Amino acid sequence: MRLILRTDDGALILMTYRGVRHASSEVNARIARGEQVPPSDYYLRTTPFFETSSAKYAWLNKVVSVAVGERKSDGVNYEVFEIL
After folding, report:
1. Which residue in 12, 17, 42, 55 has the fewest CB atoms around it within 10 Å?
2. Can you say how many angstroms the Cα of residue 4 is from the centroid of all Cα atoms in its chain?
3. What is the torsion angle, in degrees rounded to the nearest 10, for the CA atoms of residue 32, residue 15, residue 13 and residue 83?
4. Distance between CA 42 and CA 33 in Å, rounded?
């Protein structure tokens, strides 16, 4: 996946990522119905990478990260962790 992030101050950051999501058939059905399912009921992990030409956010170009995702009725939220 690829997407463009725009920061509050207008900088553009390309985020690319691959990930894995798996759950039981029951949990998948609940998600498909739009139910709020606790993230502990399924596995959603990604490896985001960032690219930007912004000097302010150039440090992101050197970050290796993993993210834990939570499926919401209107999308997905990710908590991103830098690997040190």
Report:
1. 55
2. 13
3. 110
4. 15
- Give mean pLDDT, residues 55-68: 98
CB-count exposure of residue 51 (10 Å: 0-12, 13-18, 19+)? middle
pTM score of the predicted model: 0.81
Backbone angles phi, psi at 67, to 5 degrees: -135, 145
Percentage with pLDDT > 70 across the chain: 100
Does 72 score more than 90 pLDDT?
A: no
Q: One-letter amino acid identity for 39?
A: P
* Best CA proximity match to 19, nearest among 67, 64, 54, 83: 67
Integer Cα distance of 35 and 55 in angstroms: 41
